[in-house]
């Protein structure tokens, strides 16, 4: 599977989080989990209901999906972030620069509510670095650990990157190393992570994408995505440079 | 009210300096340009629920005092450079919030109550930045705490619809929050592409009619969403958006762009000619 792009691997890993009949949501500007959701729907989760799916009636305004999620009816939502820390807290808003200034990013979006309302949240980021995985986030946009007296329907479950998958352990309230992708060692992953990695129960190498998963992704899934994500599809279909 | 239908300059004249305005993601862009031509200042802008080119443009033109938004960014065109620059200089205040908070607070405003409960936010630093949000024991679920956020009842909703009838019923796409902000705001101003005799008999599945009773004034402005697209009618003008993003690289080039393309334009058709001249293929 040496010709599998990192985005393709991450899309397959996003897809594997989806079970049939689940209600799921993918944020705007998120081609990797969008590809994953389509892939799962074409292979093992044909009855998945995805918010805003092209075959379905549209929601009225932004609030309908939020309402559904706030009531605990959404099984899985995908988020990216600027930083994630060892406690699973996520930051979409501000990073402290070395000269003590605050650098702003786009904003919190729906995370301060969705992180508590979705039954499972899967984070994805096309970068595995000490900039992303930090000991403590510079700003808590949303907290994974259970603040006392907060009613919530679920929390973070996995973080998917180009090197590995981390899993949130609700018992210890810490992120743990779930699997390492083909081609990387534990030491390499640890060196790119800003906190000490503990292996999760059942830690193993990442299960490689199957030939079927990659074939369906490259044909039916990317075909379906051309309308919404033309640049992403063009990039996935252009000659591959060796980035490793 | 003397007349519902007004010219674009008359529509903009409703909005005073310092007004609190609410904008959906589909901007009444011609109205925003007219506000800038009339030199409007110190606007407090609420985005429903996020902001992009329209808010970045108002900030670049110096018309904005504060922005309350779930996020401000330009989608596939990247960061909102003018907004970020103004925030870093301290000339524009950003009010931390989250999309569901804005939606809930507008619903509270629409219902005439003073706050909305928010299921979340506990443990987020947004609560530190928003001392006006309260955390209380949930009166109906005493084992839990709940956050209360103040209602949003903006002075003005500014929207752009596809068309209106002569009574002022306005057709919009259902994808954005025009209906919500129209029901929450004190005064509602709309621009529309055209006036038609009958707007209700030809509604597409993803369109809705907002009743005339909400609207205070309406102006007919063809291509009034440009350079954004208008759902179901025309695509975004990628060349014009690229020209804008290129101009945004420095404050000087942005000011010059606004001067050439917006301030010196005598009318919206004149604006469009100027925007087309600037439009970039790359």
Tell me, what's the shape of chain A? globular
Tell me the strand percentage band of chain B.
Answer: 15-25%
First-last Cα distance of chain A:
14 Å
Report the count of strand segments of chain A: 13
Tell me the radius of gyration of chain B.
19 Å
* Fraction in helix of chain A: 25-40%
**Sequence of strands across the biggest β-sheet of chain B:** 4-3-2-1-8-11-13
Helix tally of chain B equals 10
User: What is the number of helical segments of chain A per DSSP (H or I, 4+ residues)?
Assistant: 7
Mean pLDDT of chain B: 95
Structural class from helices and strands of chain A? alpha/beta
Overall 3D shape of chain B: globular
- Strand-residue fraction of chain A? 15-25%
The average pLDDT value of chain A, as a whole number, equals 93
Would you report the number of β strands of chain B?
A: 13
Main β-sheet description of chain A: 8 strands, mixed
Q: Distance between the terminal alpha carbons of chain B, to the nearest Å?
A: 48 Å
Low-pLDDT windows of residues of chain A: none
What is the element string of chain B, with H for helices and E for strands? HEHEHEHEHEHEEEEEHEEEHHH
Task: Give the % helix of chain B.
Answer: 25-40%
Class by SSE composition of chain B: alpha/beta
Describe this structure in words.
- The complex is a heterodimer of chains A (244) and B (282).
- Chain A is 27% helix and 22% strand.
- Chain A is built from seven helices and 13 strands.
- Chain A has helices spanning 6-15, 31-43, 63-70, 111-117, 186-191, 211-225, 230-236, and strands at residues 23-26, 49-50, 76-79, 83-85, 90-91, 94-96, 102-104, 120-124, 133-134, 155-160, 164-169, 174-180, 199-205.
- Chain A has an eight-stranded mixed sheet with strand order 2-1-3-8-10-11-12-13.
- The longest helix of chain A has 15 residues, at 211-225.
- The mean pLDDT of chain A is 93.
- Chain B has 282 residues and is α/β, with parallel strands linked by helices.
- In chain B, 32% of the residues lie in helices and 21% in strands.
- Chain B has a seven-stranded parallel sheet, with helices on both faces.
- In chain B, helix 3 packs across helix 4 (81-89) and helix 5 (99-111) crosses helix 7.
- Chain B is globular, with a radius of gyration of 19 Å.
- The termini of chain B are far apart.
């Amino acid at each position: 599977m040496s010709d599998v792009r990192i985005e393709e691997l991450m899309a397959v890993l996003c897809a594997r989080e989806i079970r049939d009949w689940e209600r799921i949501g993918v944020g705007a500007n998120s081609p990797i989990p969008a590809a994953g959701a389509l892939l799962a729907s074409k292979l093992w989760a044909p009855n998945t209901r995805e918010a805003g799916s092209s075959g379905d009636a549209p929601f009225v305004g932004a609030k309908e999906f939020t309402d559904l999620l706030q009531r605990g009816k959404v099984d899985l939502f995908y988020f990216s972030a600027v930083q994630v820390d060892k406690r699973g807290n996520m930051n979409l808003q501000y990073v402290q620069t070395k000269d003590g200034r605050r650098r702003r990013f786009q904003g919190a979006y729906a995370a301060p509510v969705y992180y508590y309302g979705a039954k499972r949240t899967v984070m994805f980021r096309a970068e595995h670095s000490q900039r992303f995985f930090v000991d403590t986030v510079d700003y808590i946009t949303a907290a994974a650990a259970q603040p006392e007296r907060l009613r919530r329907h679920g929390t973070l479950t996995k973080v998917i990157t180009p090197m590995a998958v981390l899993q949130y352990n609700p018992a210890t309230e810490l992120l743990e190393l779930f699997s390492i992708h083909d081609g990387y060692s534990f030491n390499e992953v640890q060196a790119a992570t800003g906190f000490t990695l503990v292996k999760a129960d059942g830690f193993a190498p990442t299960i490689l994408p199957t030939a079927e998963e990659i074939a369906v992704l490259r044909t039916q899934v990317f075909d379906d995505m051309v309308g919404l994500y033309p640049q992403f599809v063009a990039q996935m279909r252009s000659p591959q440079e060796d980035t490793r | 009210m003397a007349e519902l239908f007004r010219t674009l300059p008359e529509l903009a004249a409703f909005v005073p300096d310092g007004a609190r305005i609410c904008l959906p993601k589909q901007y009444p862009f011609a109205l925003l340009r007219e506000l800038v031509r009339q030199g409007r200042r110190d606007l407090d802008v609420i985005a429903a629920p996020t902001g992009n080119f329209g808010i970045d443009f108002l900030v670049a033109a110096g018309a904005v005092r504060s922005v309350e938004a779930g996020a401000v960014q330009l989608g596939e065109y990247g960061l909102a450079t003018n907004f970020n620059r103004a925030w870093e200089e301290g000339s524009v205040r950003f009010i931390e919030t989250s999309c569901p908070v804005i939606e809930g607070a507008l619903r509270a405003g629409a219902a005439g109550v003073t706050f909305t409960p928010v299921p979340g936010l506990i443990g987020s630093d947004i609560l530190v930045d928003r001392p006006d949000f309260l955390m209380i024991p949930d009166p109906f679920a005493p084992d839990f705490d709940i956050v209360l956020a103040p209602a949003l009842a903006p002075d003005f909703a500014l929207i752009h619809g596809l068309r209106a009838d002569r009574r002022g019923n306005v057709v919009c796409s259902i994808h954005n929050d025009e209906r919500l902000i129209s029901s929450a705001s004190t005064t509602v101003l709309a621009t529309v592409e055209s006036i038609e005799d009958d707007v209700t008999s030809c509604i597409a599945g993803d369109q809705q009619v907002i009743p005339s009773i909400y609207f205070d004034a309406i102006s007919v402005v063809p291509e009034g969403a440009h350079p954004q697209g208008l759902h179901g009618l025309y695509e975004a003008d990628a060349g014009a958006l690229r020209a804008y993003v290129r101009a945004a690289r420095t404050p000087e080039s942005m000011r010059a762009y606004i001067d050439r393309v917006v301030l010196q334009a005598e009318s919206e058709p004149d604006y469009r000619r100027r925007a087309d001249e600037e439009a970039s293929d790359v």
